């Protein structure tokens, strides 16, 4: 049976009960008259927590599962728990692991810990993402499974380059076999711990076979380059622990207390890793909210929470019900929206925060007007002293939606930042410089060498053909092209059959690499960076350019150098790998600048875990939220609703939801309908006169009847028959090919003009019958 502690019903005013009921012997509390108060020293850590949160913080031994809604203090509990473990003397800082969803969240935890315990202790706690945890393990012990400590971490662009290379090798057309789709398949295979030969034997179609063959090559390439992708970081760590129990034992012994935030979005490999690490001491605390699970497309698996209770049947389950973040109106809206989902466990969520302004719906003609309305409201809020720019976030479903808002912000000269556009580390000049540094750290990284040769002056006189010969020659010698160059310099190898001038050029290049590698041992990273940029001609190319875009690239390189300076206390040979690791693991959200006074624009997915006093959620339309892709499956539709829920619950005080009657998508102007999610908002929390149903530009006519306004609280689904012309908010115009009656519903097959044939459920599809 599960042992439940805390205030499961979440009644306000009962805060002291669960703590006073069961004071731990020798624990952190002492009686002071009638009241139970923390022992001195612990006050700063436990103060500002309610009773249930206190239980979550002080139940340090054994497995603990905290399942709770948004804004209920899960992340706060996690931080205070780490502080409590150290402050109470139960653990030393380096015995604690806190896994967060982003590096930024880890930084925040470290900062808050610094405030509670002092920076020195805080720095020693292993706080970071799963990926950074795995890098740490693999750098130290990866050699046991054939991974050199200097391994490179490939990003998505590198991965795509490898898949394309594999397709080319196999004589297959990348137009026909989408590299991105193949990469998705490979990622799923890795997450399921399937090898290329597993994939081969499971193949059920030609496409599957291609995927298996690409996977095989891809894995070989990675091995040859001594590189790993993001999935590998997890997969190879799990493999390492499975094959070498002594290595696992080392980490189990070192990391005695594990905590994981945003547990609902962990994938199977992450789950396995957690289980492995915790299987000895079992001091594992995971916190999450199944209603906020929004990453199933990245293999996040909600089963992880359910199986936690199966694997740890004695787990203490703590539920937090009180929301500290938002106004009652926002909490009520969120609660009403998520209630509609069927696949969920009912949980109370309430707040004692004072009421705020009602939620506002903004009905707009198109995205330009939407952007104008949003931006003029931002302007008004700031002018009237109701908010600062930094308090405001604009959230959207897809990145493309940011453009119109950006333009409107620029027109009004309002400062803003967009999270997740082209990331700093994905910019061309930055990737060129990183490729250079990667080759120096890991000469086996042939993909980066290839980039260096094609993008910098180092490649002068070395054409694609020479490079190919170099690679083939390297393969015969079982070493990388960069190794080959190094061998050439040492004259330990006969040069391949190339023109004498080419061999001379290759020797020169090898000499450059040898010198730069030697400099790595003597100079700090930033000096080596200067040297590498000068020698490779990158500096001259950008610094001396007259074109402003090129000059901007130079400024980016200067900025990169300033990041490198942080590693300057040690020689580059030690500092560079750490820097490259940071550069590889940085995610879009980590680059967010929260200190300046600017409006933040970001996707709903990136907004997870964050909060803002004012939130504008734009494009709440059928086809966008829920996204068109999700309209055909109930499970995906539920995930879209969870995404909407995450968006709503980011707001602390003011929430605006906007939608348009028409929108430019894929270069064409399309009609839009307000999202049916809006129908679930309780009328009393939405500003009067702004209900979606009162502004619906077009509605579905009842069967056989005439089009006319229909109350959105009772949507009427038209009866459809074959041959009718219909309009779908996401797929546009089409005609009904077939209708199949289905238990009170209709399964409709529609031939869309631009999106091919789709089979949809009439009750979900919101089809409009054209007269
Ligand atoms: N006991 C408390 N007293 C006052 N403020 C609190 C308390 N607990 C949490 N908060 C505040 O409430 C807000 C939400 O907390 P937190 O971010 O930890 O919630 P969460 O459950 O992690 O939310 P999410 O599910 O969105 O990640 C934060 O601003 C936090 O400081
Ligand atoms: Mg959180």
From TrEMBL:
One of its GO terms (biological process) is response to radiation. Residues 47-327 form the UvrD-like helicase ATP-binding domain. Its EC number is 5.6.2.4. Residues 1-25 have a biased composition (Basic and acidic residues). It is an enzyme of class 5 (isomerase). SUPFAM superfamilies: P-loop containing nucleoside triphosphate hydrolases. It catalyses: Couples ATP hydrolysis with the unwinding of duplex DNA by translocating in the 3'-5' direction; ATP + H2O = ADP + phosphate + H(+). Residues 328-609 form the UvrD-like helicase C-terminal domain. Gene3D superfamilies: 1.10.10.160, P-loop containing nucleotide triphosphate hydrolases, PCRA, domain 4. ATP binds at residues 68-75. Residues 1-32 are annotated as: Disordered. Keywords: ATP-binding, DNA-binding, Helicase, Hydrolase, Isomerase, Nucleotide-binding. One of its GO terms (molecular function) is ATP binding. CDD domains: DEXQc_UvrD, SF1_C_UvrD. Belongs to the helicase family. UvrD subfamily. This is DNA 3'-5' helicase. It comes from Thermomicrobium roseum (strain ATCC 27502 / DSM 5159 / P-2).
